[in-house]
Amino acid sequence: MIFALAGRRIDQVSAKTRAFPLENVKMARSRLREALETYRTRALVSSAACGADLCSLLEAGEMGIRRRVVIPFDREMFRETSVTDRPGDWGVAYDQVLDEVAAKGDLLVLDMRPDDIRCYLRTNEVILEEATTLSKDLGEQATAVLLWNRISRGEDDATARFGESAKNRSLPVLEISTL
Asked: In CA terms, which of 11, 105, 157, 173 is 20 to 30 Å from 17?
């Protein structure tokens, strides 16, 4: 199985609605590990934001599963805007994961502008494309995984759109709750 994953970032301190509280990281990682084992996952494709992405990348790394990371723009700017801007010590894990995947040729840095909100939607499309390509190369089924609270925030919800895009590509969708 090849997992294409997207999901919630860790909640901001001031968040009124809980989507992925920091205290749920251990539980979410446990659920992810179970899914990775159950589906005998051979590769994981995701971005590397704090929360769902890094939780999955860390679990996959511990299990020896191949990881392919797609980020929309240069890694320092992504670190600043999508990793260390939320509670938790995500910066060290981010640096470690990106160093490891880059050394294996599995880091894809897209040439997008950080001020273009569509860059995250496009990154999710590339994640699905990369997973589909890997699935063909490895002779495995690709599956989209959403690690989230299962509640769409509306039209601009990148995680919900990721799930819709996966369904439009006829990919199975597995949902794992962050709550």
From this structure: 173
For residue 170, the number of C-alpha atoms closer than 13 Å in the C-beta half-sphere is: 1
Task: Give the total number of structural domains in the chain.
Answer: 1
Helices 52-62 and 90-103, axial angle in degrees (round to 10): 60
Distance CA 171, CA 75 (A): 29
Q: What is the CATH number of the domain that holds 57?
A: 3.40.50.450
How far, in whole angstroms, is CA 89 from its chain's centroid?
Answer: 17
The residue range of the domain holding 101 is: 2-177
Confirm whether pTM is higher than 0.85.
Answer: yes
* 3-class DSSP assignment, residue 37: helix
pLDDT digits (tens, 9 = 90+) for 137-179: 999 999 999 999 999 999 889 999 999 999 999 999 999 999 9
SS3 48: coil
